[in-house]
Amino acid sequence: MEVKSRHHLRSDAIQRIETDLSESLGIDIEGNSFEHVEFTDSQTELVLVDGQPLITYFGESDSEPFLTVRGANAYPPQQHVVTVDAGAVSFVSDGADVMRPGIADADEEIESGDLVVITEGSHGKALAIGRSRVDGTELLGDSGKVVDSLHHVGDDLYNVTL
Fold first, then answer.
1. What is the pLDDT of residue 64?
2. Are 102 and 142 within 8 A, CB to CB?
3. Which pLDDT belongs to residue 152?
4. Residue 16 and residue 45: Cα distance in Å, rounded?
5. Which residue, 28, 8, 9, is CA-closest to 19?
6. Which CATH number does the domain housing residue 28 bear?
7. Which residue, of 10, 24, 72, 143, has the fewest CB within 10 Å?
8. Residue 102 CB partners (closer than 8 Å, separation 6+)
9. Which of 13, 41, 74 represents a domain boundary (last residue)?
10. pLDDT per position in the chain (162 positions), as tens?
11. What does the pLDDT read at residue 44?
12. Does 88 fall in a domain?
């Protein structure tokens, strides 16, 4: 991924990101430096926190900021979390969408269309970021695809180096 632009964020933009992430995920991002990065060969936009790719935008550039997988491991979210069982870990880590039978637990406050952090059950590590197709109360069950994978361990966004 080739960098198109990179600039430090103003304090009001940083405050907006911190507020959005606090409200949506129940986390407090701390950092001395926040930089916005755009790429020439991708619509992906990142926010580097102290040089680490911890925040991105899924969708339009004016959409809400959300954690990358690295960000979710650095700042484990308290909300919008879907936990998969051991049998689903390798599939989710490779970018597969999440199926109901692989879900061990899910935040009931999730609404259809929400971004979610997909974690594994034994250590709570983030494996992927996805978009829920259904409400949190409908995530557990016996069949069906319920979370679309958007970003996972080992993809281009995870491996970006700046």
1. 85
2. no
3. 97
4. 16
5. 28
6. 3.10.450.120
7. 143
8. 84, 85, 87, 88, 91, 92
9. 74
10. 788 899 999 999 999 999 999 999 999 999 999 999 998 888 889 999 999 999 999 876 557 899 999 999 999 999 999 999 999 999 999 999 999 999 999 999 999 999 999 999 999 999 999 999 999 999 999 999 999 999 999 999 999 988
11. 84
12. yes
Q: Which two tokens stand for residue 111?
A: 């609404």
**Residue whose token pair is 């700046």:** 162
